[in-house]
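ingest -> validate -> predict -> emit
validate: passed (alphabet ok, no gaps, 376 aa)
predict: started
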Amino acid sequence: MEQFHWNRRMVLPKRTSELIALMAISTTLFLFLHTRDLNTKLKEMEVKIQPYSMVSGNQLISGDSGPAEVSGMRATMKLLESTGEMQSLQPTRLNNTRKAQTEVVFFNRVPKVGSQTLMELIRRLSSKNDFGFHQDRVQRVETIRLSLEDQAELAALVSSYEPPGVYIKHVCFTNVSNFGLPEPIYINLVRDPVERVISWYYYVRAPWYYVERKIAFPDIPLPDPKWLKKDFETCVLTDDRECRYVRGEIREGIGDHRRQSMFFCGHHHDCLPFDTRGALERAKMAVERHYAVVGVLEEMNTTLTVLEKYVPRFFEGASDIYWNEISRYTPINKNAFKPPVSEEVKNIVRRNFTREIEFYEFCKQRLHKQYLALKL
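emit:
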């Protein structure tokens, strides 16, 4: 009997410590959730008590958007007021969704602009809003510029999906109506072009990128370790071929991932030369004539609001799902292996990205106009 009590006394402390540890974890989790909810409410209260001049662009519970989004919106508003355009802004005139001949969204996503996050948002919205979700399969070699025959095949594929539906693929703008097929609803995202090219540089060197590629295509050879270790700053400062951005230069092959404007310019030969006026104007024209919404990664509040209002059949409730589910709990494609890059090096690159920066600012101003026209 004494032996039984002795054994019992020996077991109790262990169970007690486990119980205490479990209670500590539970308490920590409760405090984390409670603090997060309080933080969200505080941000919402800040928006309610601040005047419009301090908060615009639907700035609510953003972790990614902030003063830059607000100041950008304010600058657009002042420009429109100075030219007299502010009063004449109308959502119907700025919304190409009305031109669509079928309820199919074509998201020809640009890499490294937050497109995978938007794709996940659309996937979740497909269940909520009852529409089909279709994405291109993983490619061994991802070709973004297509021959005329391949464009026709892609146009036929987009048109084959039963509406309402969404089709997603990394590819240059493809004018489906040119092949006698109904015009879809085009959407896309852009990002600061220099930040994007840095992100792309480290993305293709990330270890998990090659793990995913090896799983999908086991016979793909591994890259040279020296290439993997090469950092962006050294690449720029040593005038490395990979980080040389020469105006008018043409890089044939599968496509030029240095430029996001190419995804809007299309498949024409004039779109090939780097940072040229002709390619820029073609890209702008495609956005103005065909795209319902071109969002901006750095201004996600504004982007989500415009998507909800201009393409409601597909994006109703987008802000709620993005901020309360994806942004909080599902960080997608975050690259922990991307080191900081100095402003000095960024400025060197910016000098060769003048047309890319102009295109980015053009898309940003168009998004602001679409938002301001709503008069929320």
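The mean pLDDT is 82.
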